[in-house]
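> tool_call: predict_assembly(chains=two)
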Amino acid sequence: MKLNIKSLNYSTILTICLIVVLTILGELSESFKTFLTSITGHHWVTKGVFSSIFFVIIYFLISRTNKDGAELTRQVIYTIIAAVLSAIIIFWFYVLHFVS
Amino acid sequence: MANPLVAMHAMAGILSIFAFLLVFVELLSPGEKTIKRVKIFALIGTILIFISWIIGGYYYLTYYGPDVKPAIKEGSNPWIHSVIMETKEHIFLFLPFLAILTTGIIFSYSNLLKNNKAKSSVLLLCALIILLGLAIAGMGYFISAGARAVGVG
């Protein structure tokens, strides 16, 4: 099995960013949260479904336009930075959201 | 008594962390059958994350949301839901994709053990999955303790 790892890296980064955006928007806008809830019955489930579909679509879109290349370690480091920063952003967002 | 779904969710999560820990350890000290074992552990770890996701999600929608969440929010430690649970449930969503990426690299590089870039990439991703997984498990402990404190855990 040979996957396009460059595309897989970028789709992972973009999916993590999407999760952060959906999470924060959902908390800041009640109408957006209601929209997310209306799709599956719960906003968290919709976020999971959206993220999964988005991940697959982005992987195939990037795979079609980008050949798998070198610099694997650098791509993975970008993914790790994105994941760690996103986790910190989500945590601090909820801390501030709670105290405000 | 704790809901058995919580135990199943936590067990699947912990075992998935353990599977990626085994991938990490195998790659640090490779042997003859390392590549075969690494593929199996990564695949098992990824499947377990999905199982934990499904069980946790079912519990969240069926029991936590209607019963536990309101009790915690009305108790003396509402931050356990508002900060810890909210953070946990959203950071958890990163893990399936990180696991797919890690497993994808392992299966795509047949020369994983000789390719230092691929090997170090997998090691870094495994470390991230293990650390995020442990953080999430710790948050799960807080939530269970919070639920017990208000008599719904």
